[in-house]
Model the fold of this input.
Amino acid sequence: VQLVEPGGGLVQPGGSLRLSCAASGFTFSMYAMNWYRQAPGKERELVAHISSAGGSTNYGDSVKGRFTISRDNSKSTVYLQMNNLKPQDTAVYYCYATEYWGQGTQVTVSS
Done:
């Protein structure tokens, strides 16, 4: 199983960023997918969850209304669209599925 997450970076407050996670080694369309994040000195927290077919999503309270999770089962890829980013969104973002974690990608929100 591989979960590869390019797409992090530095963005100004109020800006947007889209993360992607390309999956391989398992039947992607059969599994729910998740994004987590971990800020320095804090526990890893669930950011967003999407069901296997994409019909159901859930979000952490701190990102509701700003982040959107989606997936393309034909490309075995899950996305996280992040809008109106805030400094407190700064963290390493991880893709998670079937008990496997991606390597993480750093997102820094700063002016």
